[in-house]
Design brief:
Elements lengths: L52 H6 L8 E7 L6 H18 L4 E7 L4 H13 L4 E3 L4 H13 L3 E4 L11 E3 L4 H14 L4 E7 L2 H16 L3 E8 L6 H9 L13 E3 L4 H13 L8 E4 L6 H5 L7 E4 L2 H15 L7 H20 L8 H4 L5 E3 L2 E5 L5 E3 L2 E6 L2 E6 L11
Parallel strand pairs: 1-2, 1-3, 3-4, 4-5, 6-7, 6-8, 8-9, 9-10
Antiparallel strand pairs: 10-14, 11-12, 12-13, 14-15
């Protein structure tokens, strides 16, 4: 088992371009990730199926002061599969960090706002000191007020950043850091003329605004911005707008790069249409976000050479292998957030205990500017409750991803 490392030791300085990240400080990053292998025969520590909470808490336990943390996920209903994966990943963290005085209390939200609100009361009645989850935005909205009434902090799994703040923190991998990281990379590769195609929704608004902000900082000229429907129904019209409905020759290409934070069928339509108009990844650098972290995107030959910003894949690969070894299947992409949330809770509890302080999961500890290191790399929470993460720059080659620039290992400030 990998030992838990707490803050305090000096670390090597790395250059990092993350304009969206607030002021950095010196310090190490306490690790909540693991590098060791798991015994193949070892069962998870806590049951995965919905449990009777009374039975869980009345079971024979060592006579130690337990730190109980609730994990609120759908264990029944249409979204039970993803809820179970999040729970199993969190249990894996408890098993790996081997904290005998820490206990997860799983509560079923049923995937509904009312179920999530009821789950908070159930968890609070069982003495939890913090909430992990829930998953969906409408659940988080319902949980926020309910948890505040019990003075509980909430580590939400939702990526709806509008819900963060006060007692709610967003554990999701948010788009802001991805947009700023890839914009920074493009500027250092000499791209000065960039076009943008993004969806007409909240996600598109966020990435376009952030990319434009960083582009302005580096003197990048945004040639044209075109927005499309989230389902990509008007993607070909966007291609025609970007190209002036003309086949573009290499010597008259108006773009050095295209930023396309789009996934799924919409992206397929875009790159196929662009190819027909003379725009491909051999002539124009394709830039994207973690939406491209998808097997279908990687297999698309028209995406060869495209680059995007996302959490580093190395630690997640180890996590996925260990998850499969214990649970018998590969985890969904979102499961790593469940692991990191549980591991973070254990780190904070251990840190408080080591300092002879009561385990309260207070705001100062959660927003430690040195941050933490998890399955998806380093992360920390700003004062708005949003997770800021160190991003890698990845390139698609031959159906696989290659690290062009590794993710930073520290939020340490660097003199410019």
């Amino acid at each position: 088992m990998a030992a838990l490392v707490l803050a305090g030791c000096a670390v090597a300085t790395q250059r990092q371009h993350q304009p969206h990240v607030a002021g950095s400080v010196d310090g190490t990053v306490p690790s909540v990730a693991t590098a060791g292998a798991y015994p193949t025969a070892m069962p998870p520590v806590f049951p995965v199926a919905p449990v009777n909470q009374g039975d869980l808490l009345n079971s024979q336990m060592p006579q130690v002061q337990m730190t109980r943390v609730g994990i609120l996920v759908p264990q029944t209903g249409a979204n039970a599969a993803i809820g179970t994966a999040l729970l199993q990943a969190a249990q894996l963290a408890v098993f790996d960090l081997n904290e005998t005085s820490f206990q997860l209390v799983p509560v079923d939200t049923k995937g509904t706002p009312q179920g999530a609100s009821d789950a908070v009361r159930s968890a609070a009645d069982n003495g939890v000191k913090m909430i992990l989850g829930p998953l969906f935005a409408n659940e988080v909205s319902a949980v926020k007020d309910a948890a505040r009434g019990y003075n509980l902090q909430v580590m939400a799994f939702s990526t709806d950043w509008r819900l963060a703040g006060d007692n709610v923190y967003s554990m999701g991998v948010l788009p802001f850091g991805q947009a700023s990281r890839v914009a920074d990379y493009a500027s250092r590769q000499g791209a000065r003329r960039i076009g943008i195609i993004a969806t007409q929704d909240m996600y598109g608004d966020a990435v376009v605004e952030e990319f434009q902000r960083v582009a302005q900082h580096y003197g990048i000229n945004i040639i044209k911005v075109v927005r499309i429907d989230a389902n990509g129904g008007n993607a070909m019209q966007a291609v025609q707008t970007m190209t002036g409905n003309n086949v573009l020759s290499a010597d008259r290409m108006p773009y050095d790069a295209l930023f396309m934070p789009v996934g799924g069928s919409a992206l397929r339509t875009l790159v196929t249409g662009l190819k027909q108009y003379g725009v491909d990844s051999s002539r124009v650098k394709f830039l994207g976000t973690g939406l491209w972290d998808d097997a279908d995107v990687l297999r698309n030959p028209l995406m060869a050479g495209a680059v995007y910003a996302a959490p580093s894949p190395q630690l997640r690969t180890t996590f996925e292998r260990n998850y499969q070894r214990i649970y018998g299947s590969l985890p969904p992409r979102l499961a790593s957030i469940g692991y990191d949330a549980a591991a973070l809770a254990i780190v904070l509890a251990r840190n408080a205990t080591a300092q002879n302080r009561p385990v309260t999961f207070d705001r100062a500890a959660i927003t430690d500017p040195n941050g933490f290191s998890g399955v998806d790399g380093i992360f920390r929470f700003n004062q708005q409750g949003l997770a800021e993460r160190g991003m890698a720059v990845l390139q698609i080659q031959g159906g696989t991803i290659h690290v062009v620039e590794p993710a930073p290992q520290t939020f340490q400030a660097v003199a410019q």
